[in-house]
Amino acid sequence: MPQSMRALVAGEVGEPNDVLRLESRPVPTAEAGQALIRVKATPIHASDLHVLRGRYGFTPEFPTVGGHMECVGRIAALGPDTEGLKIGERVVAVAVPAVPGPRVAGTWQEYLVADTHRLLPVPDRLSDSSACQLAVNPLTALLLVTRELDVRPGEWLLQTAAGSTVGRLVIQLARHLGVRTINVVRRRDAVEEIKALGGDEAVCTEDEDLLRRVTEIAGPAGVRKAIDCVAGHVGAQVSQALAPGGEAVVYGALSTHRQTDPAALTIPLLARSIIYETKVVRGFWLNRWFGTASPTDALRALSEVRSLVADEVLSIPQGRPFPLERFTEAISFAETPAHGAKPLFVFGDGRDEADGHIEPDDGHIEPSRHRFDA
Ligand SMILES: NC(=O)c1ccc[n+]([C@@H]2O[C@H](COP(=O)([O-])OP(=O)(O)OC[C@H]3O[C@@H](n4cnc5c(N)ncnc54)[C@H](OP(=O)(O)O)[C@@H]3O)[C@@H](O)[C@H]2O)c1
Fold this sequence. Notes:
single chain, Rossmann fold, 2 domains, 7-stranded mixed β-sheet, 12 helices, binds NADP nicotinamide-adenine-dinucleotide phosphate
């Protein structure tokens, strides 16, 4: 076991590329009930950057290792009296801090210590790219569709940012469940892909009117269920597009991400539509879900997600690997419109046990070579 490791650390709140530094830190030690994970791959989610900017739903203690969502790796050591897991076992570490709940170690480092109830064993046949994105977005898609809104077969579900990872997973899950989707995207280019994935209808805000199109598509009965991760004007339009008695769950605010103006961080709901059509607009946040779900329920939901991915009902879009040293490039890539693939930090030589070999992206690799399957 090495004594030290690389970690991507933010010294203070600020623009990620201004405050992040690559540091050498001692490899941590697992206590009772914990495991030391050698991280193989970990994504850069929009919310990870939000956390560093100090505009997320929780604020870690700074300096903080970045990455407060998830990773895949292998168990390098177990704390004393820790049962149920083996050294060398491949696991997803769910690093989403429960709110309220204890602090959780960031994933943008070579080794991290995690409580064993936050570890989900994963089969070797799942690629590192899929495994390291298993816990957050697929779980969110599953919870939104089946638990938060309980969308029934044949019902319409309206969703925004349908080309996002969550959006694509929602399309696949909806198809599996017989739910019909109306998918809002901001670029015309994205429409074909949405249709190819199985999205029933697509609305492009670049050149179409959201309200008019939803009315045309759903007819007089309208749409009673919606999920929105854009907020702002688009979120407001989603609430207006709902049929009377309809419900919209807001789970993201992508339109506000680069905003500092408090007035821009809103969803300007139309009071008449909310009051006279008795609609509900409410939030969903995975951190709070982890704060209320029992460990057994959380594990059950995560296991369900693992099965859906392993059985290829859900296919998690392939991420784009970056070595930790190229973090500024990876973060800029994460925020480029239409970037297409989720950036992932990858560790080690890129070689995996089962069948894959990748080299971290030099910017000129064929798409197929972005695979780094386990
Ligand atoms: N509440 C929760 O617990 C929870 C859990 C998971 C995810 N989330 C949220 O879900 C959202 C999606 O996450 P993800 O990881 O799936 O995203 P992602 O894969 O990184 O994709 C981002 C997508 O959002 C679109 N987008 C970005 N800014 C936009 C804007 N201003 N207006 C419209 N579309 C915009 C992008 O479109 P282009 O292709 O055109 O660039 C892209 O399709 C994020 O807000 C994330 O924070 C919330």
